[in-house]
Amino acid sequence: MTSRLLPLLACIPLLAMPLLAQEPSAVEIQDLSTRNADFAARLYRAIASTTDDNVLLSPFTVSLGLAALMSGADGSTREQLLQGLSLNALDYLRIPELFQSVRDSMAQSGFVNQGIGILPRQQFKVDSTYRDIVQTKYGGNVQGLDYSDGAAKDTINQFFSTYTREQVKEVVSAIDPQTQMMLITAVFFQGQFALTFNTSFTQDERFYVNKYKIAMVPMMFRSDKYYLAYDRSLKLGVLKLPMTGGAAMLVLLPDEDVDYTSIDEEITGERFQGWLKQLKRTRLEVQLPRFILEQSYSLQKVLPGLGISEVFQDSADFSGIGGETGLRLSEVVHKAAIIVDETSSTGNAHAPNIFASLPPRLTVNRPFLFLIYHQATSSILFMGRVIDPTKK
Q1: What is the pLDDT of residues 177-191, one digit of tens each?
Q2: pTM
Q3: Would you give the end-to-end CA distance of the chain in angstroms?
Q4: Given strand 181-189, what is the order of strands in its sheet?
Q5: Less packed terminus of the chain by CB within 10 Å, N or C?
Q6: How confident is the model over 80-93, as pLDDT tens digits?
Q7: Signal sequence span per UniProt (predicted)?
Q8: Cβ neighbours of residue 27 closer than 8 Å, sequence gap 6 or more
Q9: What is the per-residue pLDDT across 234-275, written as a single tens digit (0 to 9) for each?
Q10: Residue among 203, 197, 215, 265 at smallest CA distance from 367
Q11: Separation between Cα atoms, residue 43 and residue 278, nearest integer Å
């Protein structure tokens, strides 16, 4: 009897397996975060290499969306998604539970507002089990849309505006009526620093955008004990700014004689983990520019370079989404917005102490990179590059 069951068990689809899954262990969660960090770095490098402007993306939100798509894929389409996401060494049947566990940990903090939408054409019948998995495991939504209807654009924008507290209002500006399926991810973040900057100490300072341009920007100030590291191989200062809710920002400031593009090329998940281990607490005066970023990317132009291409081809296998064939991904849109400011006008940020020996000062007055991560799981929520703080 047992021998007869084995072939049947091997054929149980991914959609049915999460119901049997056990609670992920801490080791599994750390393994997922390490792999997500690798994908985050590769995605950042791919996007940053295409522009000289500010950069902002949420690698974790993109990973969530693509992993949700993977749960409805089969065959080589699924294998390519796993490989591209750096998840190929994991048991793919465990992936939905792993992402849900990380999401649950983040939800307790409540500092990220994101929306994930898998939007096939309306004629495609979506399996209710798949719809439930995307919602419960990945926090996303699956909804059929009539792309030939001009109202589809408004439907999409309204959906993501709601999920981002109306901070991301226009995710798409136009839609091809021949669209087969879209994957859209949007996210907004405004965290509060655990060591708040007081607005009374903020003043306009010079920010050296490049050799030929200087911008005057509101520069926040605080003197306190911070965690700091220095990467000698890259000539890069690393400053940790803890945030409420369990997040933290890493500010990556290249030395004055170092081009930020050389840092872009060296960003890896392994380096991220190494910086965290090198951080040491020290008294420091910090000057950081206030900035607001909002960026949007069409990732169908980027993902093939990361090994994810079959999803866009007629040979794509998304039979797990609804059992039908002939569905392929037409567009992958990612939009992210972030506000970094004092977030408090009454914080007890320390002013310079003129009656004691002055601590070292770190003034972030030239192009820098940053990461915002969830400390409990080491998940990279945001990666960005600020070339000019006066521009979004």
Answers
A1: 999 999 999 999 988
A2: 0.90
A3: 64
A4: 141-142, 112-120, 181-189, 331-340, 291-298
A5: N
A6: 999 999 999 999 99
A7: 1-21
A8: none
A9: 999 999 999 988 999 999 999 999 999 999 999 999 999 999
A10: 215
A11: 24
Contacts of 7 (CB under 8 A, 6+ apart): none
Give the Cα separation of 8 and 3 in Å (integer): 10
The domains of the chain, with CATH numbers, are 12-191+294-338 (3.30.497.10), 199-289+343-386 (2.30.39.10)
Tokens of 7: 């072939």
> Tokens representing 290?
């206030």
- Residue 242, Cβ density class (10 Å: 0-12 exposed, 13-18 middle, ≥19 buried): middle
- Cα dihedral 101, 106, 107, 112 sign: negative
The Cβ-side half-sphere exposure at 37, using a 13 Å CA radius, reads 25
